[in-house]
Amino acid sequence: MGFxxxxxxxxxxxxKELQSKGAxxxxxxxxxxxxxxxxxxxxNIPLQxxxxxxxxxxxxxxxxxxxxxxxxxxxxAASILKAQGIEVVNGGGWSRLNSKx
Length: 101
Known about the structure:
- By secondary structure, the protein is α/β, with parallel strands linked by helices.
- It has 7 helices and 4 strands.
- The protein has a single domain (19-100), classed as Oxidized Rhodanese, domain 1 (3-Layer(aba) Sandwich).
- Helix content is 50%, strand content 17%.
- The two termini are 21 Å apart.
C-alpha cells in the first residue's frame, strides 16, 4: 500500500464499492465539454449549477462518483456533496475514470 493510499484510502476500491451500490456518475464539466465526450450513462451537472441541484441529487438516493476533465472540479463537487450528507467519491478525470469502470 502506497503512502497516499494509506492516508486517503484506495480510491479504486471506493469507486468499486459505490458502483456495487448503484452509484451515479456525475460529470461536473461544462455542457460544451461534456458534449465532446463523456462516460456512457453519466449525468452532467456543471459545477457552477451543482448547489442548485442538491435536492435533485438527494432524491436519486444513490451514492455519487464525480468526474471532470482533470479531477479539480470533481474534487470541489465531491466536497459540496459530502457536506450535504451524500455518499460520494471523487473519480477524477472522466477519461481515466472511464478506463477503470
